[in-house]
Amino acid sequence: MENIGVYIHIPFCLSRCYYCDFASSIANQEQIDRYVEAVVKEIKLLATQIKYHYIVDTVYIGGGTPSVLSAKQLGRIVFNLRKSLKCDIREFTVEVNPCSVDRTKITAYKRMGVTRVSIGVQTFNPEVAKAIGRKHTPEQAVQATKWVVESGLDCSVDAMLGLPNQSIEDVDEFVDIVQANGVTHVSAYMLKLEEGTAMYKAKQQGKLELPDEDATCDMYDRIKSRLEDIGFHRYEVSNFCRENKESRHNLKYWQCKPYVGVGLAAHSLIGNRRLYNPSDFDEYYTKIDQGKLAQRLEQKLSIEDMMSERIMLGLRMDNGMDIVGFNSDFDVDFLDTYRQKLQKVQQYLNISKERVSIKQEYMGVMNVIISELIF
Ligand SMILES: C[S@@+](CC[C@H](N)C(=O)[O-])C[C@H]1O[C@@H](n2cnc3c(N)ncnc32)[C@H](O)[C@@H]1O
Ligand code: SF4
After folding, report:
1. 51: pLDDT strictly greater than 90
2. Are residues 8 and 112 in the same domain?
């Protein structure tokens, strides 16, 4: 039996941040209960598809904001997941927002078997936080990290870079707080102005000033070097951690390992099939109420597609792509098949018989190097 990761999407938030276009909305308890029941039904339906082929080894409950669910609502999902699927869970992450989490919820997560909590912090600067529509104070964010660490769970925090009024000093403060509070994983994302968001509109109307690209890249370089100074390493372009604290679930995405998505707008990769759930509540509920899986086929990947994806995603990781696995999965000799293309970009790569990776100093032009290899 093969291992599989399960992603469960919780499409609710207490409020909408000005930059965010994730599938999420503000809901009342009744709507959340309705959703929890649909997710439970979907898990049971999925069991018929994957129970005899896969063992669940990682679980990631993300959003939106899973912590808007009560411990009882989340517990109901987790109970049914364990009951319906074959599980040997090695890593279990729940995403939380500092506004909707407290010590009791963290304790309940631990009892459910959660091993890792990922906190959406973005910034510890109150002015910057306000400018992007975050509702929590820096104190609430620090408190959330303390609860997680004190309860013995792994603590990850999200940082955003290139925000209005953000400076290098804010980045330094972020790393200081990470170090002082026992956080072991940081995801650092450069702001992407997504069409349709409040920040996108404000920018279009000339009402929003943002740090330019150079300033944002400086913030990225700073967070990377400061995190390295305190003993973290980068393992993927946006992800840094202490030794052995990589997100096993997220590694599956970059290693093209199987994962199944449950809930609104969730994506799956099973074998050579990419599937996605509808992002419309009515459509999702209609399917589930009919006792059918809501998944739709997005793409049936050819061998060539799968090879390209494996290279494209593998090279996002600092230790690159596993050539031995590639050769055995596709029954080819990678170094031979890609000889000519590799020659064109070899000065940017570390190549051995086992792995190929992009040299640290060229990770910034990763996309150009990858394009040369796969097109
Ligand atoms: C689902 S949210 C995390 C949990 C929770 N919803 C919260 O925000 O507190 C996932 C992360 O994606 C990042 N993110 C969302 N929209 C982004 C954007 N437009 N640009 C860059 N990063 C973004 C943020 O760091 C955010 O914490
Ligand atoms: S960043 Fe998180 S809390 Fe803010 S709207 Fe997006 S999903 Fe919700």
Report:
1. no
2. yes
